[in-house]
Design a protein that fits this description.
Length: 333
């Protein structure tokens, strides 16, 4: 069943990536159910018609990024470990969409140069149709490649992020299901451990319960990437925990794993109130939602790599700061 769903999504991608811009909807609609839900990064947000997704997102992106190329790093499928009562299978793809940034997109000035859009997409397949999609991407990363600075200096490193160190993320063929069980167990343990944070334990001690010592956290632009437990605690996890109050975990919509890889998404995952300091921003006294996708690589019984997509444009927009609108008005440096 997983292989059939994988092939459907791969065929959909081939159609989507190769169709002429004006034919995107007509050529790809056969893969999408009539009752469709698409969740995307701000300003696209939630859409309930494939035609709207094509018109608002895919056509403008293809027009702006010439010769768009999908550079996939992780591809996997599985049942939703939170609930699979409807028989749906979720297929996950993560990587970059790369093209020549020849026309402005979302007010971001073009560069005429190679530009990468980080993405991760969860597609739910039921009865040979894609019924739901969650596609998160990193628009601030595009801004930075265009010479803009949407956020204050980051605590982590700003990179075009590579795929897994093992180069084993593309699971087009069937994989031993017991390996996915091990991966979901490691993810579940980590999620539960965070929720039950022991104040008497140092952050590094807590992290070592779930993570390899040489872990890599591939964070979104605005936060950045960081390496090893000690630097992750210093450059992201510690500052993050210190910068919010009233943190509410809203749960996940899907949690899936195959082989040594797994991940989840929520809508939103977290609701929290900034107390000042996070990403160099002041306190706001306004609760905000964080929509997050996390993808993991397991090594042994612990987590070794984590690719993170956070809709920071949506979060800061809720705090009264229109990052996208502000950057569209700033001349490129």
């Amino acid at each position: 069943m997983f292989q059939t769903a994988k092939q459907l999504v791969r065929d959909y991608y081939q159609c989507l990536d190769n169709a002429q811009v004006d034919n995107l909807f007509a050529d790809s609609q056969t893969f999408i159910s009539k009752d469709y839900l698409w969740r995307g990064y701000h300003p696209f947000n939630e859409q309930t018609a494939h035609s709207d997704v094509v018109e608002l997102f895919w056509q403008p992106l293809r027009q702006a990024f010439k010769h768009l190329q999908r550079r996939e790093d992780i591809f996997m499928a599985g049942n939703n470990r939170l609930s699979d009562s409807d028989g749906g299978i979720w297929v996950v793809s993560m990587g970059h969409l790369m093209g020549l940034f020849d026309e402005a997109w979302l007010g971001i000035p073009s560069t005429g140069k190679m530009t990468f859009l980080r993405y991760c997409e969860f597609n739910k397949v039921v009865d040979d149709k894609i019924t739901e999609t969650a596609m998160y991407f990193d628009i601030p990363h595009v801004m930075m490649q265009a010479g803009l600075q949407p956020f204050p200096p980051m605590t982590g490193a700003q990179l075009v992020q590579p795929g897994p160190m093992t180069h084993m993320g593309l699971m087009y063929d069937a994989v031993d299901t017991s390996e996915g069980d091990k991966t979901i167990a490691a993810i579940d343990f980590m999620v539960t451990d965070i929720k039950n944070w022991d104040q008497d334990m140092t952050l590094e001690e807590e992290l070592r319960r779930s993570w390899c010592e040489d872990m890599i956290w591939w964070g979104p632009s605005g936060i950045g990437a960081t390496y090893t437990i000690e630097r992750y605690a210093k450059q992201h996890s510690g500052p993050f925990r210190a910068s919010f109050k009233d943190r509410i975990f809203n749960g996940h919509i899907c949690r899936v794993a195959e082989g040594e890889f797994g991940g989840f998404f929520g809508w939103p995952n977290l609701t929290l109130e900034p107390t000042g300091g996070f990403m160099g921003m002041p306190a706001t006294s306004k609760p905000g939602d964080m929509r997050v996708i996390d993808i993991y690589r397991r090594q042994g019984d612990k987590l070794a790599e984590n690719w993170v997509f956070i809709d920071l444009l949506h979060f800061w927009n809720q705090q009264g700061l229109d990052i996208l609108g502000r950057m569209a008005q700033v001349p490129r440096t």
